[in-house]
Design a protein that fits this description.
Shape: globular
Largest sheet: 2 strands, antiparallel
Oligomer: single chain
Radius of gyration: 23 Å
Low-confidence stretches: 301-307, 436-448
Helix content: 40-55%
Length: about 450
């Protein structure tokens, strides 16, 4: 992947978002904004106006535009703490996770957030995110609180907990430099279109490191918030201790936070964390399990009807993907065999997860309308489907060096990404079925 940097070229996507913010709020130049030829485009203290968009578009400046702006009445530490207090008061699952890490009333996490001293540029970016999406501020604060709880569960000292908390707050600011089309809600991003989105953790790190004087551990954790300790994350597939402890905390927090807009978030989070053993650190999984056991019980009824892939089709798609990988191990260049081997290992892990979560029982038995079983089936199916798509995206990213590589992996990527029409997915008679294996998570299974 090519090296990326914040640079001094005006980012068109950031500029468009900036102008939307400037229409609603007072955005000022904190320094003279000067182009590479010495032309003054906006004097220090001047307000950003609609006409400045054309003046700035396509320019190279003497310093990054992101570093030269401030917002009047931007969010401050008090506003962040107030948001956190409201979230804790209104979310029993969030409070339960903090208690599981030893923070009985959330005061520890609140105290960490109260220590946030962010400069004008980062405060502007937080407000810009909120301008783009109403819930962005609360979402960032929620991930900050969860990150603090996860860091405490990992046994980090106060500085490590603070780094995780701040990184959780800022984890997605790199998205402000990306084309909004690759992040549109509900959009099914094609594997090859994922190459831009995968840069946002690194862009976030650059923004944190270059726009403020926060500890480098904060920027590093931002860069690592999509990594996984088993090496299956992105952008660098960091494995084990190569991913910092604050980064691991934020990665788990970000994943868990994705369930808080759904019913039974702790139950969903625990199931998701157990789908792939070793994806997250054991203490982080234990924190969610302890929160679930000791928190308020969440009744689980029949889930709302959602469109999920059938167990039978998912089973045959996994088996067909395995066979496609095995075909790529014969008479192919070393690089293609290496990528195929890596993909095969990860698909085999999901094959085992299909059985360990009890999805294989749906190939032979009907479970009726049991709410608990349908809930677990829905969560497990969605998580496995998502991970198959993630493998497709990473293959598309790494198998993009030549036409030969793209052709070699085209069929496998289509299978993993679920782009193959149902009529063209091999039938169970055409593929080797998923083999029974030891159920690695018996606590997730229920009798058929």
């Amino acid at each position: 992947m090519a090296a990326i940097s914040l640079g001094t070229a005006v980012n068109p996507f950031f500029l468009a978002r900036l102008m939307r913010l400037a229409l609603a709020r007072s955005v000022l130049a904190s320094d003279d904004i000067v182009d590479q030829f010495g032309v003054l485009l906006l004097a220090r203290g001047a307000r950003m106006l609609p006409g400045h968009q054309a003046a700035l578009a396509g320019r190279f400046l003497t310093r990054p535009l992101e570093a030269s702006l401030q917002l009047v009445d931007a969010v401050d530490t008090g506003a962040l703490v107030a948001s956190a207090e409201q979230l804790l008061a209104n979310s029993a699952p969030l409070a339960a996770i903090l208690r599981a890490g030893g923070d009985d009333d959330g005061r520890g996490a609140l105290a960490l957030l109260a220590r946030a001293r962010l400069g004008a540029p980062l405060r502007l970016l937080i407000e810009m995110s909120a301008c783009e999406a109403d819930a962005a501020l609360d979402d960032g604060v929620r991930v900050a609180l969860l990150s603090a709880g996860m860091a405490r569960s990992l046994g980090l000292d106060e500085d490590g907990q603070l780094a995780a908390c701040l990184a959780g707050l800022l984890h997605d600011i790199g998205e402000l430099l990306l084309d909004p089309r690759c992040m549109a809600p509900g959009q099914r991003l094609a594997p090859r279109g994922w190459a831009e989105l995968v840069t946002h953790p690194r862009l976030g790190q650059l923004l944190v490191n270059e726009l403020d004087t926060l500890p480098l551990a904060v920027g590093r954790a931002v860069a690592e918030h999509h990594e996984r300790v088993d090496g299956s994350g992105y952008p660098h597939q960091l494995r084990g201790l190569r991913c910092s402890a604050p980064g691991q905390a934020v990665a788990a927090a970000d994943m868990i936070a994705g369930f808080f807009d759904k019913d039974s978030p702790l139950e969903r989070a625990e199931l998701a964390l157990k789908i792939v053993p070793g994806e997250q650190s054991r203490p982080l999984l234990a924190a969610v399990s302890n929160a679930l056991r000791n928190g308020p019980a969440a009744p689980i009824g029949t889930p709302v009807a959602v469109e999920t892939e059938s167990a039978g089709r998912l089973c045959t798609r996994i088996a067909a993907s395995i066979q496609q990988c095995e075909l790529l191990l014969d008479n192919q260049p070393a690089h293609i065999r290496s990528l195929a081997n890596e993909a095969l290992a990860r698909i085999r892990t999901l094959e085992r997860a299909f059985v360990s979560t009890g999805l294989d029982a749906y190939l032979h038995h009907k479970h009726g309308a049991d709410g608990k079983l349908l809930f677990e089936k829905t969560v497990a199916t969605r998580e496995i489907v998502w991970r198959l798509r993630h493998i497709a995206r990473q293959l598309a990213l790494h198998a993009d060096g030549s036409d030969a590589e793209r052709r070699a992996f085209a069929a496998l990527i289509a299978l993993l990404d679920n782009e193959v029409p149902a009529a063209r997915v091999p039938s169970t008679a055409q593929v080797t079925p998923i083999r029974p294996v030891a159920r690695v998570h018996p606590e997730l299974n229920r009798p058929a």
